[in-house]
Amino acid sequence: AIVAQDADLKESARRIAFGKTMNAGQTCVAPDYALVHRSQQDEFIKAYFEVIQQFYPDSIADNPDYTAIVNERQFARLQHYLMDAQQKGAQLIQIEAEAEGRRMPHAVVTDVNDDMQLMQNEIFGPILPIVCYEHINDAIEYINARERPLALYYFGYNKAEQQKVLNETHSGGVCLNETLMTAGMEDMPFGGVGASGMGHYHGHEGFKTFSHAKSVFVRPKFSLMKLIYPPYGTWIQQLIYRLFIR
Q: Whole domain around residue 54: which residue ranges?
């Protein structure tokens, strides 16, 4: 997720938080990290946690709207990501410090780097790393230096910058000023590119993906195919090649 410098930070934080809190981040299109202008990191984090508290005003221990991590193995994996990041210099920010069973508090991680396992794998959990940038070109370069994502989210209303991101990045799909909806629109093709997947489904594209178009070629009784049969080098073959072969 890219948060442009001129974006509405509170609304961007709200929409990113929705994408990250859905099923506790356990969806394939949950934002794995947020690219935020360096001067706005603190303001964005404040807005993000304000939204989380609005979404889940009660303790996660007894909140019926809050989802647990699917099993102990995945819970341990996420805890390891946090421990590994902290050991390598990252700062961890959480509203609630302790998990309740497998109900894991939402966390923001700053000062991240590529040595951290958190930044090497799909997170699939309620952890949002923040990556700071100075110029939109830096954000684009950061994305392009990594495997192509299944979904890319851009927040900001500058039309020229929106188009720049669309033109200069590769991803399975893009949402402008929203999250998740690349997968939620039944009549829009959904799928990855490169490491994030192959092909599309939903709607007409899904019908084509899961169907086989059988090719049938029919030659009528009268045919000029014999003109290109061997032996080769005749004047008519040379004329055909000149006119039709590119």
A: 2-205
Task: At 117, list the tokens.
Answer: 């396992």
CA dist 98 → 103, 131, 173, 214, 236 (Å): 9, 25, 35, 57, 83
Instruction: Check: CB of residue 89 under 8 Å from CB of residue 113.
Output: yes
> Which parts of the chain fold into alpha helices (H)?
9-21, 41-55, 72-87, 136-144, 159-168, 181-184, 203-209, 235-244
Phi, psi for residue 37 in degrees, rounded to 5: -60, 140
Q: Is residue 214 part of a domain?
A: no
Answer whether residue 169 is part of any domain.
yes
Give the whole-angstrom CA distance, residue 109 versus residue 25: 15
CA distance 172 to 194: 9
Number of structural domains the chain divides into: 1
- Quote the CA–CA distance of 131 and 113 in Å, as a whole number: 9
The answer to whether position 210 is within a domain reads: no
> Which CATH number fits the domain that encloses residue 125?
3.40.309.10
Count the residues in the chain: 246
Closest C-alpha to 173, from 186, 163, 188:
188
SS3 per-residue string spanning 42-75: HHHHHHHHHHHHHHCCCCCCCCCCCCCCCCHHHH
pLDDT tens string 87-145: 999 999 998 767 778 999 999 999 999 999 999 999 999 999 999 999 999 999 999 99
